[in-house]
Amino acid sequence: MTDLKPLEQKTALVTGASSGIGRAIAMELADAGAHVFLSGRTAGPMEEAKKEIEERGGPASVITADLRDLSQVQGLVDSAVEA
User: CA of 24: how far to CAs of 2, 15, 17, in Å?
Assistant: First the structure.
C-alpha cells in the first residue's frame, strides 16, 4: 500500500510562497500532508494559497516576512518550530 500523505505530522516552511515556484512547492508539500508555513512579503496571495490548501483539507499558516531582515527570519523560524 502506498503512503498517500508521506509528510503528515511534518512542518514545511516555504519562502517566496506568494507566487511562482514557491507557491507551487507549498501546494505540493500540502498535498503530501505537511502543515505548510507560507512566507513572503505579500500577504494577499499567500492568504489565497492558504485558503486553497485548507479547502483541500490541509493545514496552512501565513507569516509575512522580509528575509533581508534577520530578526524577521528568526521570528519566522520560531513560529514554525512552535507549531
Answer: 23, 11, 8
User: Counting beta carbons within 10 angstroms of the beta carbon of residue 57, is it exposed (0 to 12), middle (13 to 18) or buried (19 or more)?
Assistant: exposed
Written as nine digits, the cell of 9 is 505530522
Q: Is 72 left (phi over 0), alpha (psi -120 to 50) or beta?
A: alpha
CA distance 57 to 71: 32
pTM: 0.88
| Strand partners of residue 63 | 39
Residue 1 has pLDDT above 60, yes or no: no
Average pLDDT over residues 25-29: 97
User: How many separate helices (H) and strands (E) can be counted in the chain?
Assistant: 3, 3
Angle between helices 43-55 and 20-31 (to 10 degrees): 20
